[in-house]
Amino acid sequence: MTPGAISAAGLTSSTDSALSVTGLSKTFGFSRVLQGVNLEVRAAEVHGLVGQNGSGKSTLIKILAGYHQPDPGAVGMVGLRTLKLGDSRHAFATGLRFVHQDLGLAPALNALDNLALTSGYRRSRSGTISWRRVRAAAEESLGRLGYDFDISVPVSRLSASERTGIAIARALDSAGSRPRVLVMDEPTAALPVAEVDRLFQVLRTVLMGGVAIVYVSHRFSEVLEICDRVTVLRDGRNVATRPRPSLDQPTLIDLTIGRALPLPSELVDRDPTTMDPVPALKVRSLAGRVIDNVDLDICQGEIVGVAGLTGSGRDELADLIFGVSPRRGQVIVGGEVVPSQRPDLSMRRGMALVPAERLLKAGLGRMTVRENITIGNLRGFLSRFGLKREVERQEAQQWIDRLDIVPKDTEAPFVTLSGGNQQKAILARVLRLSPRILVLDEPTQGVDVGARAAIHDIVRQETRRGTGVLLISADSEELISLADRVAVLVHGRIAGMYSTRDMTPSMLTELTV
Amino acid sequence: MVSTGASRQLRFGHWANRMTVTDTNVQAVNDIDPSASQSTRRHSRLPSVLNKISLLLIWAGLIMLFGTLRPHTFLTLATLRTLSGDIAITAVMAIAILLPLAANTFDLSIGGTMGLAVIVVTEFTVKAQFPLALAVLLTLVIGVAVGVANAVIVSRFRVNSFITTLGTASMLVATQQWISGNVPITFGLPKVLTDLGTATLFTIPLVFYCMVVIAVVVWYVLDFRQFGRFLYATGSNADAARLAGVRTGRIVSSSLVLSALIATIAGLLFVVRIGGASEDAGTSYLLPAFAAAFLGATQFKEGNVNVPGTLLAVVTLATGVKGFQLMGAAFWVQQMFDGAALILGVALAVRSGRQRVLG
Q1: Closest Cβ–Cβ partner in B6, B39, B239 for A360
Q2: Do A343 and B245 count as a contact with CB atoms less than 8 A apart?
Q3: Most buried residue among A39, A140, A250, B291 by CB atoms closer than 10 A?
Q4: Are residue A79 and residue A194 in the same domain, yes or no?
């Protein structure tokens, strides 16, 4: 590749390097999070970056974004320009763009404002904001990506893929330098399957515009679909960089975790005659904002899945059943009606919830793992003189050992755990209560493959105790591998109930549309 | 994974974390990923033990400094006596706000509540000539009523606690002036009360021992009762605590009632110690109390309000002020000191939590 070739043709060929980093190491305190990592992203390719939580991919991205300083010795190039690693202004100037997992949009503002906040409000000659020009600019940059939606409503009311679109448009829009590489960090974590395809179309449009893409994801099926080449990190080192044709899902799993997945425990015999004739959970005429007249029964030891697109009421269901938000209709656990808006009473009746947004709705951030595990019920530790700390610590330790939570330290602050371990701690919290009904809302969201398999295994084991499980998930594969039956939500109603025995993810996806 | 539990007992919700109020700040909390929190952890691991008891070192330094500069006035029993008396009331007030603060709830009305107690108990005993026990009982009832009013507004009408108690604080000051006609009773109190005020045990005033009892009770409740755990859980993440079965509304309400009750007791102790009322009795204690609670949050349980840290902060601040006064500093030194301490306390806590804080 020569500089002349580029300027002459004005184009880059697909084997040219858009971004390369060599010999990248990063040490935090005494531990090396990255050890001599190399990454090479070619122009006009989608480059997958995969690895478990803690493999160092977040750190790698943060160094690219200039948020962390690398250890000395690393060399970065964007195209033919040297990239000063650890300098966010320089990263931007050379053309690196980032869309982070949480998108970083202001939810109460509309698309216009979200775009203009970064790219600047176009002004008229007198200096006042020219809304006509702001609108035109926003429509243009979203239209370029193929979006056409109402840009005047707050982004919190848009669909997840539309929000992602705004974030991408904002990243590519920013004035000052030409975008060359777009780094997408877990862009589909919150996207339902149908909207993933929409995102992929957008990414292909971006690619056509001459911007290479780094695609970071836990979802191997997506990586295999969209990426041209994939780099795998494990324990802060390169494991492999391979073109897609030489990869399949089992290979990727092997490469990321470095060992075969533990075999799931065998399924319980689900002969209907052995099931309790009285359902553990009965839901009658349930209604909320979107949910409309839903009836649902869950027997002891049964896992019932719920599938549905964003906007189908899927994300509202757990809150309604557990009694977090106001509802109409009845929820009956073990023959007793559970009052609404009293999570504490729902728990006393034998229900337990693992909420969808772990850090916002489940984690007691800076409290210890012990306190996070035991918060649901402290009665066992109460004596006349107060809490018996040692008894509490021992019980927490048992749960840590049983669910293999790392670090094996009851006193570690909750926020310092990785996503998968946080989720296991929340699971320990609810399993400790020996619930009759376990409501799992997106239980493996943002969790790596190893932890995901472990969580699935824990849930299966729990059903052997006779616990009925309601599994609400945007992940079709998860629903099929775990649930006995799947209810498909469409526009707030149950459109159908299906056995998962012979179902495939694509069949389920089709049913949700 | 590096094990942190052994060296660092960061146990309950980080108060700065709890004070994140806007959407974007919640996002910031959400944004903490394993690698980022690892770096935060290591960042705060290095100073570790010394940092956790830094106030103790500063306190010792102040004693040595003033002891050397003013050996004949500073290192005396008289200083110990006045200091421990001064400390007692500030400390009770600081302990009063700990309870709501642990649940990420503000009570800015404790000053007003204390002031009202001061006015009411003197009016009852001197003007109305009620028996002392009745006067004290009625005062406590009024104090609790103030707390209940705060609690109802915050948990039933869902008004932010900062705003609610800012409003009630002003109304309480108005009530004080209304009742006293802005002429506080400064003499004529029952002899029992004034005797109690001058009584000492081992040269230390009795009010100091009252404060110690209150401190021990609150420390026990925060660390060894279910209620304390629920307070910290509510403060750490109210939504999560509610979904884990904690009745957060009740927890917040109870903390506001308790803070009002303890502030009322502070008012009674003030009357005992001074032997009369004063028009700004309550409000002048609000800022020192907050300063001590926030500065105390940087000690022992790094990042969390706690009783031992608060007491240490009160003692250190009072020692500093007293020393400067003996050096001939002007009367405004105390307010300057307290204000600086408040900002310093919050700044340190923000640094260790890397969170933005209300305001």
Answers
A1: B239
A2: yes
A3: B291
A4: yes
A386 touches chain B (CB under 8 A): yes
In chain B, residues with a C-beta closer than 8 Å to the C-beta of A371 are 11-12, 229, 232-233
| Residue A477 confidence (pLDDT) above 50 | yes
**Is A386 contained in some domain?**
no
Which residue type does B75 have? Answer: L
Identify whether A387 is part of a domain.
no
- The answer to whether the beta carbons of residues B227 and A388 sit under 8 Å apart is no
What's the burial of A104, exposed, middle or buried (CB within 10 Å: 0-12/13-18/19+)? middle
Domain spans, chain B:
74-284
Q: How far is CA B162 from CA B206, B266, B334, in A?
A: 34, 21, 25
- Give the nearest partner residue to A378 out of B27, B38, B229, using CB atoms: B229
CB within 8 Å: A104 and B233: no
Chain A interface, mutation test: which of B23, B239, B243, most A Cβ atoms within 10 Å? Answer: B243
If you count them, how many residues does chain A have? 513
Give pLDDT, residue A77: 87
pLDDT value at residue A13:
52
Cβ contacts below 8 Å, chain A against chain B, sum to 162
What's the number of domains chain A is made of? Answer: 2
CA distance linking residue A178 with residue A169, whole number of Å: 13
A80 and A222 share one domain:
yes
Distance from CA of B38 to the nearest CA of A (A): 6
Same domain as A154, residue A209: yes
- A375 belongs to a structural domain: no
Instruction: Please give the residue range of the domain that contains residue A287.
Output: 272-350+435-512
Query: Which residues 6+ apart lie within 8 Å of B146 measured at CB?
Result: B109, B112, B113, B116, B168, B172, B260, B264
> Within a domain: residue A415?
no
Interface touch A385/B224, C-beta < 8 Å: yes
A345 and A315, same domain (yes or no): yes
CATH code for the domain in which residue A305 is found:
3.40.50.300
For B15-72, write each residue's pLDDT tens digit: 333 333 333 333 333 333 333 333 344 344 445 566 677 788 888 888 888 878 877 7
Same domain, A484 and A457: yes
**Cα A22 to chain centroid, rounded:** 29
User: What residues form DSSP beta bridges with A331?
Assistant: A283
Res A172 pLDDT > 70: yes
Q: What parts of chain B have a pLDDT lower than 50?
A: 1-46, 354-359
